[in-house]
Design goal:
heterodimer, A: alpha/beta, Glutaconate Coenzyme A-transferase, 10-stranded mixed β-sheet, 5 helices, 13 strands, B: alpha/beta, 3-stranded antiparallel β-sheet, 20% helix
């Protein structure tokens, strides 16, 4: 069985290391916060100006002045810090944020990512995505392996407008875990019940299978 | 050094059609509700608006869109607004999308007196089209210009009559950057106090950047995404 969205988030959470400052994008990346392994302390960064993002407030405690980058009401935690948007992107740009997790429409075998615009459709804007992908040293993409029509989203090159060049290091899709190397996509893990043949047939970009490829465990 | 004006109508009286105005806020969080209302009532148009977002259909900058007061929107994210989409697709409204960190930095450098800055965000993308670039240590950067805004309008939590400002929680966002960036800066605050009542160590925006200040009224503080946990 391919992974569902929660399982993709759960697998990404295994990449968290103690002491990491982490920026989670909207959608599946947000769910990663639900699966932080015990014993691992991470600080979540929200690019609208908060380090130490806490859970949603209890009913009745929500405060219009305290939201995350997805405009959801949230809370602070002991040790949280609030700052302006320039400081927020300063800590991103200067490499202080250890890990960024975001979604993608397409990823190319050289690590290019497209996730902000579909020509001919309403353009909503890139938000902070271009800043994040340009700066972050460690970017993991959470995505579905194929689009609704079954076309691969792991490509030789992106067909949609680019968000950033050669920046994605790792993908966790519903089919497996892939590193991006000088030789393109390398499959490190496969989802339980998903065959290597299926992964090969659904990956349009250059793909190699790691010698020690194994089944994803949680 | 008393910068107090009576209300939003007085504060915005010198804003004219065709001007460029910065609005603080992220989504609907920390937006200058009183001044937006006053500009809508005044009915000026052809405005260029610099703001991270464009409000929602019936609140924030969306109110100015409804009255067709905007010529151009400079923002990083403009979803959640059907009237915006309609005006953009019909060609009534011009839009310049700017990566969020670049938007913040272009405000910041305006307040710091720095004319331009090299940034990585947008290299190799549509954002780079037509822009000057510079290479340092083998990396290419885009040259991004400081914003040049006639007015900046910000919302703070507390302010004193000398224009010193303190923001609350994530309602800070772009507000202190824009406060420093406008040729003329208007601050509306929830609580206006006398000099000496704010701890100088806690000031986010020094009063030198603020030209006019007033205590706002009737804040709605609308929440875009109300997400909560059940009490156990």
């Amino acid at each position: 069985m391919a992974l569902n969205k929660e399982q993709i988030a759960q697998r990404i959470a295994k990449e968290l290391q103690d002491g990491f400052y982490v920026n989670l994008g909207i959608g599946i990346p947000t769910m990663v916060a639900n699966y932080i392994p015990s014993g691992i302390n991470v600080v979540l960064q929200s690019e609208n100006g908060l380090l130490g993002m806490g859970p949603f407030p209890f009913e009745g405690d929500e405060d219009a002045d305290l939201i995350n980058a997805g405009k959801q009401t949230i809370t602070t935690l002991p040790g949280s810090a609030i700052f302006d948007s320039a400081t927020s992107f300063g800590m991103i740009r200067s490499g202080r944020v250890n890990l960024t997790v975001l979604g993608a429409m397409e990823v190319a075998e050289n690590g290019d990512i497209a996730n902000w615009k579909i020509p001919g459709k309403m353009v909503k804007g890139m938000g902070g995505a271009m800043d994040l992908v340009a700066a972050a040293k460690n970017i993991i993409v959470a995505m579905q392996h194929t689009d609704k029509a079954g076309n691969s989203k792991l490509l030789p090159q992106c067909t949609l407008p680019i968000t950033g060049l050669r920046c994605v290091k790792k993908i966790v899709s519903d089919l497996g875990v892939f590193d991006i190397t000088e030789n393109g996509f390398v499959c490190r893990e496969y989802a339980p019940g998903v065959s290597i043949e299926e992964i090969k047939s659904k990956t349009a970009g250059k793909l190699t299978i790691a010698d020690d490829v194994k089944e994803i465990t949680f | 050094m008393n910068k107090v004006v009576a209300n939003a109508d007085v504060a915005i009286k010198d804003i004219e059609s065709g001007m460029t105005i910065m609005f603080g806020g992220f989504g609907l969080c920390g937006i200058p509700e009183n001044c937006i209302r006053a500009i809508v009532n005044k009915g000026i148009d052809n405005l260029t608006c610099i703001s991270n977002n464009a409000g929602v259909d019936d609140f924030g900058i969306g109110l100015m869109l409804q009255k067709k007061q905007l010529k151009k929107m400079i923002a990083s994210y403009v979803g959640e607004n059907a009237e915006f989409e309609r005006q953009l697709l019909s060609g009534e409204l011009d839009v310049e999308l700017v990566p969020q960190g670049t938007l913040a930095t272009r405000c910041m450098i305006a307040g710091y007196g720095i004319p331009f800055v090299p940034v990585l965000a947008g290299v190799g993308t549509e954002v780079a089209e037509g822009k000057e670039t510079v290479v340092r240590n083998g990396r290419q950067y885009l040259i991004e210009e400081a914003f040049d805004a006639d007015f900046a309008i910000v919302k703070a939590w507390k302010g004193d009559t000398m224009g010193n400002l303190i923001y609350k929680d994530t309602a800070r966002n772009f507000n202190p950057l824009m406060a420093m960036a406008g040729k003329i800066t208007i601050a509306e605050v929830e609580e206006l106090v006398a000099p000496g009542e704010l701890d100088p160590n806690m000031i986010h925006t020094p009063g030198i950047y603020v030209n006019q200040i007033f205590q706002g009224t009737d804040y709605e503080k609308r929440i875009e995404q109300r997400t909560v946990r059940k009490r156990s």
